[in-house]
Amino acid sequence: MDQPTTTAELTDEQIRERFERSVRNSPRLKNNTPLGEVTVNGAFSHYMDADTDTLWIGYRAGFRAALAGDA
Asked: pTM for the whole thing?
């Protein structure tokens, strides 16, 4: 995978990798945030756990807003 030249060029998949890494690296999140995925046609759709999916949606929105300078 080509690396983006700026963080503004990150794909949702690259942002999700960072989200999952932050969950795995935080003992509190790791113990309470299951990362089971639902895939559709081989592509990530959402997380099985509704709370994890809500956390992901907020993380992605905040990440995108920060990159756009809207935060």
From this structure: 0.82
